[in-house]
Design brief:
This protein has helices at 2-7, 25-28, 32-48, 52-86, 92-115, 118-135, 141-167, 185-201, 220-241, 249-254, 258-271, 280-285, 301-314, 319-351, 362-376, 378-389, 394-412, 419-446, 453-477, 484-501. It has 513 residues and is mainly alpha-helical.
Length: 513
């Protein structure tokens, strides 16, 4: 499989090298020494090529994506029964999960640019799985929300690192960095697993309403959390046993740790018997970088805050970066608002359209949900195929296609007349939206400087989580029988498609730093 990826005849369309490709780092940083070192590192990665190590990273990092969507779907699935048991009608547990996700992205993302990617990558899933199991044992709404927030903190931080770690080891040649888009296919897998587990435990082990809803009669949500937590723990163990993650060489170089960066690359080259002409002397001959400093030299609170501020400022270091980062953050904010509103309003809106729109049995409801989530797996796969086989589209073109297609399906929901149309449009909307999702999650870290990549990626996820805070509030206080929210969501995602065409950086044409 590794050889097939590298030797595909289509892959020769856009083989890149340092002599024929401008690196994005040239447009981002004025530190000439750092730019030179980044080019040498990327040249070495291209020379080593795609190995079984990268294939393992694809699946193990994809597990992080699956965990994110899986746990979000689980909390959404059990929320009604939680509210029945604890006498609540406002979706407070959703707010706890979103706030935890914001905190996790901030904590793990900002620290990953200070102390490295490997530690957060290895511990985040383990802690998330542990907190999930504890969540299932809680006996009050307050403690339930606390551990929902803690589990969200961990898997939210993990999501920041999945794309960053995979990207910083991938070759650019033969368009191989487009593989980052494929990670999002694991979202659909995670969601599908979550729905299947909820289907197995919730229907026969849950209260039918808030009246006389005792814990003994409402244990389905507990079983659901236990099983999902156990799955996440298994994935966490796989991460540290199936692969021994090297610290990313781009992080090491951007922190003046040239010897470690060289050794990280050499370990991979030696293990898989691949050529590597880079030497430590070549790296060190470039000189000393000035744009960043090693966090270990000054671990005081003041020094840490100073470095974090410098990492943030890199994202706005010149006119190109100001424009790009501003448009990127705006896209994430719009996505964070419109996507959850669509799914928060949809069930109630459909209920006003007639009894034949939604399935009339528990089996039918879960079956339809599984179908839609399985179809979402196709979105990132379509996005990757477009990037790989139609490279002229670039990331911006695929983002535009995904956004406009999603907008059309959102608008289409206002015209559905029967159950078959509901399932078809739901499946198509999931698939189209995940074309956009998959590409945006890959595009964002690709266009960020390596020294601030985790920080920038964390900011994107924090912004979209912040947008998600408002969706349940809007759904709770608004008229959900109106079609207006669907039109608003369709218009917002279409705006994101137009914004995509205005991004000044295009990773398919310029190598990421």
């Amino acid at each position: 499989m590794v050889q097939d990826i590298e030797k595909s005849p289509i892959a020769s369309i856009k083989s890149a090298s340092s002599t024929s490709t401008t690196d994005i780092s040239d447009l981002q940083s004025s530190d000439v020494v750092l730019n030179k070192k980044m080019k040498l590192v990327q040249d070495a990665i291209d020379e080593i090529g795609f190995t079984p190590y990268h294939l393992k990273l694809l699946f193990l990092n994809g597990m992080g994506y699956a965990t994110d969507s899986q746990l979000l779907m689980i909390e959404s699935s059990v929320r009604q029964y939680i509210n029945f048991q604890f006498g609540q009608d406002f979706p407070i547990s959703n707010e706890a999960m979103v706030i935890g996700g914001i905190a996790g992205a901030c904590l793990f993302g900002f620290s990953a640019d200070l102390i490295g990617r490997r530690l957060a990558f290895n511990i985040s899933l383990f802690l998330s799985g542990l907190f999930c199991i504890i969540t299932g044992a809680m006996n009050s709404l307050a403690t339930y929300c606390l551990f929902v927030a803690l589990s969200s903190l961990c898997f939210g931080g993990n999501l920041v690192l999945d794309t960053v770690c995979f990207l910083e080891f991938l070759p650019f040649k033969n368009n191989l960095q487009s593989l980052v888009t494929l990670l999002a296919a694991f979202w659909g897998i995670g969601q599908s697993v979550a729905v299947l587990i909820a289907w197995a435990f919730l229907p026969n082990n849950s209260c039918e309403g808030p009246e006389n809803c005792d814990s003994a009669d409402n244990r389905g949500w507990r079983y659901t959390w236990y099983v999902n937590g156990a799955i996440v723990l298994v994935l966490a163990v796989a991460r540290v046993t199936v692969i021994s993650l090297e610290e990313t060489p781009k992080f090491l170089v951007s922190n003046s740790r040239d010897e470690e960066a060289y050794q990280s690359l050499k370990n991979i080259a030696d293990k898989y018997n691949r050529p590597m002409s880079l030497t430590l002397e070549k790296l060190q001959a470039c000189g000393e970088i000035t744009a960043n400093e090693d966090y270990r030299k000054n671990q005081s609170v003041k020094g840490t805050l100073k470095l974090m501020g410098e990492h943030l400022s890199v994202l706005f270091s010149n006119k190109t970066m100001i424009r790009h980062t501003s448009l990127l953050f705006l896209s994430w904010l719009i996505l964070g608002i419109c996507y959850p509103i669509f799914y928060a309003f949809l069930p109630t809106y459909l209920a006003t359209r007639g009894v034949n729109i939604s399935a009339d049995t528990v089996y039918g409801v879960y079956r339809d949900n599984v179908i839609s989530n399985v179809c979402s797996i196709g979105g990132p796969i379509i996005a990757w195929l477009l990037l790989f086989y139609v490279p002229v589209l670039g990331r911006r073109g695929v983002l535009f296609i995904g956004a406009i297609a999603s907008s059309a399906f959102f608008f289409g929901y206002t015209q559905i007349k029967n159950h078959a149309q509901n399932v078809a449009l739901s499946s198509a909307a999931y698939c189209a939206l995940y074309i956009y999702f998959g590409c945006l999650y890959a595009f964002s870290p690709e266009t960020m400087p390596a020294m601030a990549r985790a920080t920038g990626n964390a900011c994107c996820i924090m912004i979209t989580r912040f947008g998600q805070i408002f969706s349940p509030i809007i759904a709770y206080y608004s008229d959900t029988s109106s079609s207006a929210p669907l039109f608003v969501c369709g218009a917002l995602i279409a705006i994101n498609g137009i914004i995509a065409l205005g991004f000044p950086l295009e990773p398919s044409k310029n190598r990421p730093s």
